[in-house]
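Hello everyone,

My group is preparing for a crystallization screen and wants a predicted model to guide construct design. The compound we'll soak is pyridoxal-5'-phosphate. Before spending weeks at the bench, it would help to have a computed complex in hand. I've included the protein sequence and the ligand's SMILES below. Output in structure-token form would be ideal because that's what our pipeline reads.
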Amino acid sequence: MKTLQELTRPNIWKLKPYSSARDEYKGVTASVFLDANENPYNLPHNRYPDPMQWELKTELSKIKKVAPEHIFLGNGSDEAIDLVFRAFCEPGVDNVVAIDPTYGMYQVCADVNNVEYRKVLLDEHFQFSADKLLAAADERTKLIFLCSPNNPTGNDLLRSEIEKLLREFEGLVILDEAYSDFSESSSFLLDLDKYPNLVVFQTFSKAWGCAAIRLGMAFASTEIIGILSKIKYPYNVNQLTQKQAIEMLHKYYEIERWVKRLKEEREDLEKRFSELPLTVEVFPSDANFFLVRVTDAVKIYNYLVGEGIIVRNRNSISLCGNCLRVTVGTRMENDKLIEALQGFII
Ligand SMILES: *Cc1c(COP(=O)(O)O)cnc(C)c1O
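Reply:
Good plan to model first. Here are the tokens for the complex, ready for your pipeline.
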């Protein structure tokens, strides 16, 4: 790995961050706060939230078994995705490499930041080759994006290839684990110490059932977390979100129940899909959704819209011709979907 200074944009490396009132006084003994121009009325919404979200990070660290200093929290994973571009990629100069197909936000953030985005096609089993990604990289490649389980294909990426990439790539490997709660493979969180160039993204939006509160997590070395923290908006995670997230962390057992249930529903729904005449191929999934190749994705998508059922048409995505991406819902929602599809005339 290159040094973190070599990987970081020079202006960001030198940047002195904005210091908020809540940064400058961190004690807990004061009772009169006249430092932040807040309104003294309308408790508890009148106060600025903790800019570093320490209480939330401390609770999270117990569940994730990662020290708070290794955690960055943002306004969804989308914030973390954008921040790694702004921290490490010089616009018009540096580039990133990513698997294809994958989550669309990596490319959108690359385009917004004017950073070249190099795509490397997955194979017919939706797996990647570390060698191919490395061959697409050059001196100016700062980041490689992986997503496991991958969106929209639903499968885990091979652990041995991820490890090879972590060992051999000179820049940072961004591993998006938005769906890892639904997978039987273990998270790379426990390997953070082994790989200083690893950045793991997770989110409250999927297994945690909290897409509405917008909370994303990045886990990495204290040095990388320090850089992301210094360029974020000072109060990037609002108080309502921090409070709701802490409540969710106290209900961890509930999330485990949801995940178990959704995995059972996934197996069931995939089986029922494979028996439909319109199905060409159901791809195995390690997530809370799956990809299915059908006889005519556009027609079937539009038919389902007419029935009031929305799935995702992935027909125009690489390797996903005539594919629909189906999120696993409740038993009742899944039944409605299958019933509707049984009424579709090929
Ligand atoms: C849904 C999803 C996310 C979550 O994004 P948030 O901004 O945290 O809601 C991240 N990565 C992938 C691959 C996803 O599919």
